[in-house]
Amino acid sequence: xxxxxxxxxxxxxxxxxxxxxxxxxxxxxxxxxxxxxxxxxxxxxxxxxxxxxxxxxxxxxxxxxxxxxxxxxxxxxxxxxxxxxxxxxxxxxxxxxxxxxxxxxxxxxxxxxxxxxxxxxxxxxxxxxxxxxxxxxxxxxxxxxxxxxxxxxxxxxxxxxxxxxxxxxxxxxxxxxxxxxxxxxxxxxxxxxxxxxxxxxxxxxxxxxxxxxxxxxxxxxxxx
Amino acid sequence: xxxxxxxxxxxxxxxxxxxxxxxxxxxxxxxxxxxxxxxxxxxxxxxxxxxxxxxxxxxxxxxxxxxxxxxxxxxxxxxxxxxxxxxxxxxxxxxxxxxxxxxxxxxxxxxxxxxxxxxxxxxxxxxxxxxxxxxxxxxxxxxxxxxxxxxxxxxxxxxxxxxxxxxxxxxxxxxxxxxxxxxxxxxxxxxxxxxxxxxxxxxxxxxxxxxxxxxxxxxxxxxxxxxxxxxxxxxxxxxxxxxxxxxxxxxxxxxxxxxxxxxxxxxxxxxxxxxxxxxxxxxxxxxxxxxxxxxxxxxxxxxxxxxxxxxxxxxxxxxxx
Lengths: 224, 321
Hints:
Chain A is 79% helix and 0% strand. Chain A contains ten helices and no strands. The N and C termini of chain A lie far apart (48 Å). Chain B has a single domain, classed as Alpha-Beta Complex (Sulfite Oxidase, Chain A, domain 2). Chain B starts with 10 loop residues before the first helix and ends in a 13-residue tail after the last helix.
């Protein structure tokens, strides 16, 4: 087996399974009463935290590659990014169902036009009214075009440069995700702080690289 | 002989060396910080199994109170003892269960202080000798938007207040909780100013619904829920219910409760359950009753409006949240 094949047939499936595992465990735990007395809150919190973790992992790929010289790392970036979107979407879905839908009146029964309308209003007004929901929804919206344009065909159609520019939205998604977490906790901001530190470092690395005089080593340039 | 000629570049110009060499160090530091943070995170979020606290001693001679909620499903022992906020043990709702193993609830003394004629330190046992215990099933509404129905056992606070004879200067009662870093690991974290303090206006404290709780489900109150002595003020949000009370003080000025001290724009002194006054960050219109899927409409004063709304006649409840 070549190195290429090893990654394709062994490492990638392993990373895929490891990435699915948290959602599978959550589903199993929820169905078997292994979550807390408020399982809907657990599902919402955990899917949100996993979205943030995968965003961090996605942002770690490029620096890790540069630091270690392990160029194959790039082959996992799309999958990790799509898992961030997957967990972010689950997170949004639990909010829509367990928080917004479950809070409706259902005066004409659950299967009714008024339910759809009521749900749309309940979500829309919440997104507009509450800053931590606004920023969280923004984070998810940032990831939508990234997921849509994640295929090789889309990269070709957009062209590498434009595709790359678009995918810098990941930075916005990560920042918005951290703010969302920070603004929703009651008192103990230590966990949001850790994510802020990670995302901050990962973005600082990029800023540093970007601000640094391009390719030639400094000493040489100074001598020239 | 080789003649070494000095370069015509000023050395100061070349010597970006330290910065040049630092670049890897900078990259490394940032990378290491990211990885260390990530490793810490994976172990920090703890989910808990839904089994609750160990059972305690049965309390004797409990009478059933007519003030109990009727026709609402009572939450289970496991739900009540495994899911609550008790920051002295940690910030997660499972922390009271996980971290309260070293807590000692007996013997217990309560210091009665301030504007009263009979101050002093009382043994909880002595306080209880004089009281008839009642079981009262109360709705309990957390400011976070979840609720339970809980069969507390206790006695009306007004009984104790009358015994210690507050003076005419006593306008408020302040409750102080235990903050023992040896047995309560959460108080090592200074997020709130410890010890935890709460307060009631005198008429609120003397209202017949205001209960000093010493038991749950007919048993001695477990450490998870504020053993051995806590408040239940069912028309107010849960954070008003001081737990593990060691001091009751009568004062003439409105005391500063811990959450108000932490964020006065989010947590007030009154904290009456009110569906039309939102928390700045979330709505209080509905609540999730633990164990249910559909959210319930939150009731004014948590459904106790008939009994308590006269306490607040003429008050602006939007301003006095």
